[in-house]
Amino acid sequence: MARRAAPEVNAGSMADIAFLLLIFFLVTTTIETDSGISRKLPPPVDEQEKPPILKEKNIFVVEVNKNNDLLVEEAPMELSELRAAAVAFLDNGGGKGDDACNYCQGAKDPASSDNPTKAVISLRNNRETSYATYIAVQNELVAAYNELRNRVAMQLYNKTFIQMEKDLNDVNYPGNKEKLKDQIKRIQELYPEKLSEAEPKK
């Protein structure tokens, strides 16, 4: 009895199909990239322009020494307490007249910051500070700003500030992005992120 030859599968177009699939996945796949810490270098200083005068009470000094100890206003503090201390400083609202803050919910201590728009957090590090501690302190300070921005965003727009930023970066966001940009800008003006980093000490 004669043996039947097995039919051959034509694989000539398989390479074309694999190539088309590869192109399809390369075009449609989105790769998330880490944005890192959002910091900008200060603009060039104009010699004729005088730097703004800051009141001592509007500066919140945070220092990390070479032993990774955290000092806030020259007093030792645990990292877990830093966010609450920064929120209390930023949201104090102790100003009078033009410096008054009508949306602040702080203690209104006249010895602390006048207004979130005037408040500056000054971060000083030692060159021997560990990178992990430096990032942890940065995270707590940025989280303090985000906490206040989330609160005011919920009051004004019934949505957190973090969600608003996510929506702005979402390519499929169905709403009006220009309106969303204006809302985000308004919140950033109410609680501007004024985080100053001094030259590290040796």
The strand line-up of the biggest sheet is 3-2-1-4-5
Range of strand content = 5-15%
The total count of helices amounts to: 5
- Rounded to the nearest angstrom, the distance between the terminal CA atoms is 93 Å
The total tally of domains equals 1
InterPro entries: ExbD
Family: Belongs to the ExbD/TolR family.
Membrane topology: Single-pass membrane protein; Single-pass type II membrane protein
Subcellular location: Cell membrane
Describe the overall structure.
With about 200 residues, the protein is of the alpha/beta class. The protein has one domain (about 55-195). Helices cover about 40% and strands about 10% of the residues. The chain contains five helices and five strands. Strands 3-2-1-4-5 form a five-stranded mixed beta sheet, covered by helices on one side. A hairpin with a 5-residue loop joins strand 1 (about 60-65) and strand 2 (about 70). Helix 2 (about 80-90) crosses helix 3 (about 130-155), helix 3 (about 130-155) packs across helix 5 (about 175-190) and helix 4 (about 160-170) packs antiparallel against helix 5. The termini are far apart. GO terms for molecular function: transmembrane transporter activity.
